[in-house]
Amino acid sequence: MREFLEAFVMVFIGEMGDKSQFLALAFATQYPMRTVLSGVSLGIALNHGLAILAAMLIAGIFKDVGFLQIVAGILFLFFGLSALSIDYEEEEEEVKESRFGPVATIVFAFFIGELGDKTQLMAMTLAMSSPNPLLIFFATVSSMIVVSSIGIVIGKYVGKKIPKVVISYLAAALFLFFGVSKLCGALDPGFLQPVWIILFALILGIAVLYILIQNGKRRKKRDSRYLLEAYRKVKNCSTEEEEQEIAEEIERIGAKYFGEDIPFVGSIVKHVEQLHGVDPEIYDDIKKL
Fold first, then answer.
1. Which among 20, 82, 235, 253 is least buried, having the fewest CB atoms inside 10 angstroms?
2. Angle (deg, nearest 10), helices 118-128 and 65-84
């Protein structure tokens, strides 16, 4: 039961706010809930069934449980670092219906969409180190179904109150914790000496810091694009009322994303020169307007 709950919770946190949840939400706007849940369940079952079979094959080849635990730990660290990386440019998945009907469309979308995804790899990782792979299968599939159901029913409301960044960071912390725990339990005691622990913590810390810095750069670029689009609207204004509305929008963007409440008085160049933190590439595009 502990293994079931562990797998269920890990997949649940990892998939909250992920593209699969938004894909389920998108399908729910076109098809009845029963149809969407049926397609999601079949697609995920096929996808995770394939992962569990692969895990059982790997476990059969490598009989050393300690080795499998080390592999699992490394993979969980990879999942954690992947979850930590935020794609601020990510857009919601579009729904494309096939000629085989709604259920087949949803099954195909989820099966293909989850191939090689962190959830499928997570199911395979857990199954490799578990004495009961079938239990892991039911845990991961049921968790994905619950997450998709939440996306269908209240996902669009929850998403407005809980930022995706917060969910991603919580998932990253969970994955990194399980990765470190598995490594500590599987590695030879000789590798648990202070010098190795400090070296590991240093490498992991550098990786986390690098990802957070990249997140900051991606966020700056996204925020700068918001500003660029607003400036472009000013150039195409036809009335004074419209220009005033866009000026207020520019001021809101400056205050919200750049932390600077600078009035916009008509000059794009003068306004952007007073803002700090604008992405250099976008800054050059703005000055060309």
1. 235
2. 160
Backbone angles phi, psi at 259, to 5 degrees: 70, 25
| Both tokens assigned to 169 | 């960071």
User: Per-residue pLDDT for 208 more than 90?
Assistant: yes
C-beta pairs of 132-136 under 8 Å, 24+ apart in sequence: 132/3, 133/52, 133/55, 133/56, 133/59, 134/52, 135/3, 135/4, 135/7, 136/3, 136/4, 136/7, 136/52
φ and ψ of 276, to 5 deg: -110, 140
Beta strands in 1-147 (DSSP E): none
Say yes or no to pLDDT of 155 above 70. no
Please give the Cα distance from 283 to 289 (Å, whole number). Answer: 10
Average confidence (pLDDT) over 15-23: 70
The mean per-residue pLDDT over the stretch 104-132 comes to: 76
Q: Identify the pLDDT of residue 184.
A: 87
112 token code pair: 């293909």
Q: If you average pLDDT over every residue of the chain, what do you get?
A: 80
**pLDDT score, position 87:** 78
Q: What is the mean pLDDT of residues 109-132?
A: 75
State the chain's maximal CA–CA distance in angstroms: 75
pLDDT band at 93 (very low <50, low <70, confident <90, very high): very low
Burial of 103 (0-12, 13-18, 19+ CB in 10 A): middle
CB 233 within 8 A of CB 289: no
Query: DSSP assignment, residue 190?
Result: G
Q: Distance between CA 10 and CA 202 in Å, rounded?
A: 25
Looking at residue 237, what DSSP letter applies?
Answer: -
Query: How many degrees, rounded to 5, is the angle at CA 171 between CA 36 and CA 218?
Result: 95
